[in-house]
Amino acid sequence: MSEMSAYVIVGSGVAAWRAASVLADHGFGSQTTIVTEDSYPPYDRPPLSKVFLTASDTRAPYFHGHEDRSQWDVTVLQNSPVFCVQPDAKTISTEDGRVIGYKKLLIATGTTPRRLSVPGSDHGAVCYLRDLEDATSIRSRLRAGTNLVVVGGGFIGLEVAAAARQLGANVTVVEGLTRLMARAVPMEIADKVAERHGSEGVVILFNETIARLDRRQTGIAVVTKSGRILQADLVVVGIGVDPATEFAHSAGLELKDGILVDAYCRTSDPDIFAAGDCASFPLHMADGIPTRLQSWRHAYDQGAVAALNMIGKQTPYRCVPWFWSDQYDLGLQVTGVMPGDAVFVRRELPNGALVVFHFDQSGRLMGASGIGQGNTIAREIKVTEKFIEKRISPAPDALADPLVSLKGLLRAF
Amino acid sequence: MAWVRACDCDDIETEDVIRFDHEGRTYALYRSPEDEFYATDGLCTHEQVHLADGLVMDEIIECPKHNGRFDYRTGEAKGAPVCVDLQTYPVKVEAGAVWIEI
Fold it and tell me: Nearest chain B Cα to A14, which residue?
């Protein structure tokens, strides 16, 4: 079956949805088609590792203001995985036999979870968390008293651990390094998070990896490298993700840890764009270094910029990274980047809240991480985002002093 | 509808926002850079996050999550992800205190 849509978007996460929304806002909704392998229209992912696991509402977390999609004139083709793009013919082909012609194509396919590959990994009790179906499955198996083993101490694993604890499950987190969230936050912030999980009854095993999984009469025995045996009813694996680039690769698009795009979200093919978790783009705040970000706001903003460029409104994508994680009543937020050899400056706030600034070796402010109850560190992080955007690097002493107003520093420059 | 004494003027710094709760509802009280006072519902219309944790810059309050932005003087939502305006409430200043009509 052959059809044509001026604007075709592959994927149905926030980047895809935002791009489609921007196209619709500009009057191109009826000429836009979303093609997704998912069985649902576009929905929001962050709730899947948080409130979706603990609340009784089983409905998909559709985007706010978008629960009623009857007025939307964008076409959504569900259950249609794309297996091939033909850039010369400007068509995409789906596994269910559709061939769709496009004028402009946006690839917003996100990422796929890395799989555990040790013996026994194919046991039915081993789950991953990426989409609504995954979240629904995990939720149905989490009860008070469920023995849960979480593999991986990153954001997905920790958010699931927190949700599971709130449901009364027994939780053990198995982390391969000496600390949590090593990619993303300074050690002191990671330690505060670990401490909180500990006080909530979560057992965290550091420097541990999984050797194998053994079937038991009920459940599964998770055997670690050091020989510990963890009895589990459910295993949730969060060991990282890889950009979903399979058909982009076979289409000959340039890849570099993701689909490589320029500042205008354009791939190596002038009519094909990419945005969100799957795209590698020049990070403006870091002198254009090719970067891939896995965060809601990046996907949301880049999806919008990609759409503008698809309709010919040349718009460069300039972002200062920002993301959040909610675990228990703690709000963690990070802005900017964290260089591997960063110099850290800490700012203590009331009630145990903490913000840590990331400076590079040349003294330039590159980012900040904050943790506190609720959104107590949101303002400091927001002002820091503005510092970075304006290329302001305040003196470390000033940043460290909680009596010095960050907004005052911003105004002073 | 009645006038309720919410706080002292000095409780809110210039170009800042605080939370005010009354009879089971939550509000946000603002002091503009020009030292004028305003009041809105306290929760972002997007995902019900407390706006009082957000940053005030000029006439804009930015939600601490998802960066939804509103003009706190009028409640106007300034663009995605927020599309529903904030409810605003009349405010008056009397004898160094901020009153809200709710």
Answer: B81
CA distance A285 to A270: 25
Strands A170-174 and A203-205: parallel
- List own/partner pairs for B10-17 with CB under 8 A and 24 or more apart: B10/B96, B11/B98, B12/B37, B12/B98, B15/A407, B15/B56, B15/B57, B15/B58, B16/B56, B17/B51, B17/B52, B17/B54, B17/B56, B17/B61, B17/B72
B54 contacts on A by Cβ (under 8 Å):
375, 378-379, 382
- Which residues between 25 and 44 in chain B have a beta carbon less than 8 angstroms from any beta carbon of chain A? none
| Element of type H or E holding A52 | helix A51-54
Residue A277 DSSP code = G
Contact check, Cβ <8 Å, A378/B84? no
Say how many C-beta atoms besides its own lie within 10 A of residue A393's C-beta.
18
Q: Is the CB of B67 inside 8 Å of chain A's CB atoms?
A: yes
Asked if A184 and A334 count as a contact pair (C-beta separation under 8 A), the reply is yes
Interchain pair B53, A382: CB under 8 A: no
Please write the tens of the pLDDT for every residue from A110-168.
Answer: 999 999 999 999 999 999 999 999 999 999 999 999 999 999 999 999 999 999 999 99
Cβ of A382 within 8 Å of Cβ of B54? The answer is yes
The pTM for the full model equals 0.95
Q: How far apart are CA A261 and CA B38, in angstroms?
A: 44
Cβ neighbours of A383 in B, within 8 Å: 55
Which helix (H) or strand (E) segment is B76 a member of?
strand B76-77
- The verdict on B83 touching A (C-beta cutoff 8 Å) is yes
- pLDDT 10s digits, A254-265: 999 999 999 999
Sheet arrangement for strand B25-31: B16-22, B25-31, B37-41, B88-89
Are the beta carbons of A375 and B66 separated by less than 8 Å? no
CB A57 within 8 A of CB A85: no
* B76/B98 Cα distance (integer angstroms): 22
DSSP B11: G
Q: Which ipTM was obtained for this model?
A: 0.90
Is residue A374 less than 8 Å (CB to CB) from chain B? yes
Q: How far apart are CA B72 and CA A402, in angstroms?
A: 27
A124 class by beta-carbon count within 10 Å (0-12 exposed, 13-18 middle, 19+ buried): exposed
Quote the minimal CA–CA distance from B28 to chain A in Å. Answer: 15
